[in-house]
Amino acid sequence: MTKYRNYSNPYNVDVQRFSIYDSYKEHKGREMQVGDELVISIKEMDSEGRGVGYHNNKKVIVPRAVLGEKVRVLIKKVDGNLAYASVIERLGIQRK
C-alpha cells in the first residue's frame, strides 16, 4: 500500500462514493420529491393519453410522452403513490 491512501483494505472502499452516477445513487434510497430528475421508461398510457412510467413502485404520469419511450423527467407534484412530471429530455424509443 502506498502512504497516500487513507484506507488499509482496498476491498472495503465505498465504490459508490467514486461513481460518476451521483443522481442514481441519490434517488436510490429515498422518497421521490418535487424537483427530482429521473430517467424512466413509459410502460403504458392512461385514459387521457398521458404516458405512465414507474419508479420505486410509484406511478409517474408524464404528459406528451409516447409508449415505449425513455425520458428524463422533472417531478412537479407528488401525491402518495402517484407523481406528476414533465419531460426534460427524450432519450429515444426502446424497441424489443
TrEMBL record:
<protein>
    <recommendedName>
        <fullName>TRAM domain-containing protein</fullName>
    </recommendedName>
</protein>
<dbReference type="Pfam" id="PF01938">
    <property type="entry name" value="TRAM"/>
</dbReference>
<dbReference type="InterPro" id="IPR002792">
    <property type="entry name" value="TRAM_dom"/>
</dbReference>
<dbReference type="InterPro" id="IPR012340">
    <property type="entry name" value="NA-bd_OB-fold"/>
</dbReference>
<feature type="domain" description="TRAM">
    <location>
        <begin position="31"/>
        <end position="89"/>
    </location>
</feature>
